[in-house]
């Protein structure tokens, strides 16, 4: 967009803001009428393992949000020499699932339990049996029921249970709502009604009644909204929370808060049937919009929805690039110790590109980048591991190829199920940090999925851009215009994609690596059980 036109849109309050809370970074993207990013902001953060749970504190959340927004405003001032006083709309997104429970005074009852926790196995198993529907351990309802099974004292005080995105939205608008995509990771959704499945709600309420708790499920869960519906406006208090400078006006409309899965679908135009996307960063998940439900319940497959409520099969692995990031940090430390400082972008580009020079099967090297447990492979607690034999071909190229292949190993376990179900997909689009180094992650993902992988020029923008698109759709759509039509015609119609087809050598190499990966899981399991 022309710089003067962009400045005018910002000054007139016609720009749209999207902010997403990822696992390691909070990112803000400001877009204009062309839907292209005008300015960005970010804030690095990291979860903590405290009291047996992966968590972020409330201070982490608000410091991160305010610093991220301030960074975006700084970018606007530097590029366009203007403040940000109003916006056409705002959208918030965050990591799906997890558990934030509040009492009537709005106080957090227990520290935020993120999606990364694998502490709800008993509850998930019992709910799967009760509902006849897969309930992953990450889901909010699994966390809630586990707290009930464990007779945690706080359950009698619960007034509201939500996700991270739902919490932020609530504090800024006063509205207790969730987008249907995020809500589908809280409790099963009836995709005909775009609401929580009432039969399952009634079954759960009987469990609540048996414990004599003073609430029912619908009383404590957020209301469900679909893409395009209004979800409240920024209050005076909310504006002050977001923009501590006091320049941002209240009254700005907000779209329904969404999870990172939904924003990933929006950011890749993967919201119509037979489309799919892979989001690869701290965690990795593949999502395919289904033409029909799967033949049976699979514990490895989450059934969620698009932001419009269409059924989606989701394969989610907890671990992807975190261990790669740790190794990159080690290489930076080595370079600095040698007197050759290098920025992280240069280090990542060098290391990722090196992986393409490695042996197809990684030369007999093996790794598990499990910083946390991995349900798909039956590992309860993560122990990052690197393994080789005396005669393995231990080169930097093979080392990096091993870690990139390993980042997709658990995902592949779930994808094999969808292949057996003969799920049809016309196109897979990739986004997230795994794809930022041009051509590398894309080529290796094509090998893992044995299908064409397309990446758009916005692949690195990720979910913050996706939630900005959902916020723009809410205020700019024509009467009766679907999200699918809006994205295809007004956002992605002229956007170029780069498609990579599977290389036969890579496909065979990945298959050989996966054979070793599956056999070697016993090593990871032993480390998890014996190395504290």
TrEMBL record:
The keyword GTP-binding does not apply. InterPro entries: ATPase_NBD, FGGY_C, FGGY_Carb_Kinase, FGGY_N. It comes from the Bacteria. Its EC number is 2.7.1.-. CDD domains: ASKHA_NBD_FGGY_BaXK-like. Residues 277-474 form the Carbohydrate kinase FGGY C-terminal domain. Residues 16-242 form the Carbohydrate kinase FGGY N-terminal domain. SUPFAM superfamilies: Actin-like ATPase domain. GO terms for biological process: carbohydrate metabolic process. It holds the Pfam family FGGY_N. One of its GO terms (molecular function) is kinase activity. Keywords: Kinase, Transferase. Belongs to the FGGY kinase family. This is FGGY-family carbohydrate kinase.
């Amino acid at each position: 967009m022309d710089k003067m036109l962009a400045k005018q849109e910002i000054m007139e309050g016609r720009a749209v803001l999207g902010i997403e809370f990822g696992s390691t970074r909070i990112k803000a993207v400001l877009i204009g009428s062309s839907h292209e990013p005008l300015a960005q902001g970010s804030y690095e953060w990291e979860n903590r393992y405290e009291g047996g749970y992966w968590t972020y504190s409330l201070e982490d959340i608000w410091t991160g949000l305010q610093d991220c927004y301030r960074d975006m405003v700084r970018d606007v001032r530097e590029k366009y020499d203007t403040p940000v006083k109003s916006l056409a709309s705002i959208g918030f997104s965050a990591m799906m699932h997890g558990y934030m429970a509040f009492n009537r005074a709005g106080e957090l009852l227990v520290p935020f339990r993120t999606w990364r926790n694998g502490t709800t196995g008993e509850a998930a198993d019992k709910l799967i049996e009760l509902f006849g529907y897969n309930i992953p351990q990450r889901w909010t309802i699994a966390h809630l029921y586990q707290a009930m099974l464990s007779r945690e004292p706080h359950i009698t005080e619960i007034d509201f249970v939500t996700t991270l995105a739902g919490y932020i939205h609530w504090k800024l608008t006063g509205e207790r709502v969730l987008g249907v995509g995020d809500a589908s990771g809280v409790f099963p959704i009836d995709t005909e009604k775009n609401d929580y499945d009432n039969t399952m709600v009634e079954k759960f309420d009987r469990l609540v009644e048996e414990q004599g708790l003073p609430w029912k499920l619908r009383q404590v869960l957020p209301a469900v909204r679909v893409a395009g519906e209004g979800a409240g406006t920024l209050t005076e208090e909310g504006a002050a929370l977001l923009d501590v400078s006091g320049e941002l006006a209240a009254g700005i409309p907000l779209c329904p808060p969404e999870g990172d899965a939904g924003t990933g679908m929006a950011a890749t135009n993967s919201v119509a049937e037979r489309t799919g996307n892979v989001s690869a960063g701290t965690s990795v998940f593949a999502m395919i919009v289904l033409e029909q439900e799967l033949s049976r319940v699979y514990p490895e497959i989450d059934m969620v929805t698009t932001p419009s409520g269409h059924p989606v099969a989701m394969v989610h692995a907890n671990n992807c690039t975190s261990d790669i990031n740790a190794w990159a940090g080690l290489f930076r430390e080595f370079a600095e110790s040698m007197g050759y400082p290098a920025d992280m972008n240069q280090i990542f580009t060098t290391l990722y590109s090196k992986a393409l020079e490695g042996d197809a099967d990684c030369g007999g090297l093996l790794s598990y980048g499990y910083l946390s447990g991995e349900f798909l492979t039956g590992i309860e607690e993560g122990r990052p591991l690197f393994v080789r034999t005396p005669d393995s071909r231990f080169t930097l190229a093979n080392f990096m190829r091993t870690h990139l292949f390993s980042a997709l190993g658990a995902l592949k376990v779930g994808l094999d199920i969808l292949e057996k179900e003969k799920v049809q997909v016309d196109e897979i689009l990739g986004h997230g940090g795994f794809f930022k180094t041009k051509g590398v992650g894309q080529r290796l993902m094509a090998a893992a999925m044995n299908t064409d992988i397309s990446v758009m020029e916005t692949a690195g923008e990720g979910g913050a851009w996706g939630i900005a698109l959902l916020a723009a759709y809410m205020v700019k759509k024509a009467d009766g215009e679907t999200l699918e039509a809006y994205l295809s015609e007004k956002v992605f119609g002229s956007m170029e994609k780069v498609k990579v087809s599977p290389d036969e050598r890579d496909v065979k190499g990945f298959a050989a690596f996966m054979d070793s990966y599956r056999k070697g899981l016993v090593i990871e399991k032993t480390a998890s059980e014996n190395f504290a």
